[in-house]
Every structure is written in structure tokens, then in C-alpha cells.
Amino acid sequence: MEEYIIYYWPLAGRAEYLRIILEEKGVKYKQINDRDQIVSKVLQNGIGGFPVLFPPVLCKGDFHLGQAPVASRFLAKEFDLLPEAEEDQWLAENVHTTIHDFVAEGRLAFHGIHPTGPYLEQKEGTQRYIDNFVDNRIHRWLKYFEAVLKRNNGGQGFLFGNKLTYVDLALATSLRACEASYGPAYQAADYCPLIKAHRARIEARPNIAAYFKSDRFIPFSDNSMM
Hints:
The protein has a four-stranded mixed sheet with strand order 2-1-3-4. It is α+β, with helices and mostly antiparallel strands and 226 residues long. It starts with a strand and ends in a 14-residue tail after the last helix. The protein has helices at 16-24, 35-43, 68-78, 86-109, 127-150, 166-181, 183-188, 193-203, 206-212, and strands at 4-7, 29-32, 57-60, 63-65. Pfam families: GST_C_3. Residues 80-220 form the GST C-terminal domain.
């Protein structure tokens, strides 16, 4: 098997959605988080081949993909993490895209003044956007994911059918990111017990639990859902 390589900054961020799949499946991979290499290989397209725009970039031999949601689905197909039924595959991708929309909105609240600027340089000005996300938005996302999970076996198993999929991994990862950045709001969200229990089941899986204890694991920051 050709080695998988992930180019990403030295933080959890969007690359975590790729790592968690590879870790669950016990697949070895290499991480390149040296800033100079990311600039030369990714931002300046020194990687060659099909152009990429931003990290994370997933490589397998000469093939590479940007965009974490797309690369996640590629890995899902590689490692039998798609739902069985074709209709469920499309529904799963619908939920998967929504998960990444949730993360993007949660991140943007911490960068309400300057979307690409550091949080600490706009901390006071962006607080109103953080408060708005907590007061008016976070519950809409979490209740949606709760409803999706509940429709399958009463929310006691997986999101689709009776098998683990990449969307289960992505949802658990996004909830971990949410708690890191919006801890009090997440912990007070008593309206979504099913997805919290689902997250706990995913995180208790042997390979994932071992990953959290390894030196490969990087916790999410507390100011970006990244």
C-alpha cells in the first residue's frame, strides 16, 4: 500500500477529519507540518500535478486532494466507510457537508472582524459574534444532528445502517472541536443526549482511544473549533 501523507499546519484543525479515519482503520500515515514545506508544497503548489489551494492536502503516491470533506470521502471509499445503500450514501454526504458548515460557522464567530486574522488580534471585537453563535445558532446545529441520529435505530448505534461510516467519525470530531471552543454551551446542551452518547462510543473505539493517548494526537484549540 502506498503511504498516505497529510500536509497541514502543526495543529488539529481540518486535518483531524482525515487523521481520525486513518487512525480508526489502523493505517500508517506521515504528517508534514513544517511551515516552510507547507508554503512551498501547498501554497506555492510545489507539490505539482492538480493545483491545490490550502491545506490540508492528502497525498497517496502521485495523487493528492485538497478540501478536507472531499479527502474524507475519498478515504471513506478506500476503507469501506460508506453506507451500504446508495441512497444512504447521498444522505450521508448531505450530513457530512452540514457538519463542515457547522464547523465553519463556529470558527467564523472567532474571526468576526477579520475572517483570516488571528483571534487574539480581534478578541474584543469578535466577542459579539461568539455570543450570537452561542445564543442563537449552536442549538440549531446540534438539534439537527440529534434528529439525524435518532432516525436510525433510535439513535443507539450509527448514523446510517448498522455500520460505522466516515460521517460518524466526522460528527464525533466536530463535537470534540465544539466542546473545546464552546465548552459551557456544549456541556449545557441537554437537548442532544444521543449525539453526546454517540461521540462517547466513537471515542471509546480501541484505535481511536489509543490515538488520543499517542504523540500523534493534537487537541483542538479553544478559539476557533480548529
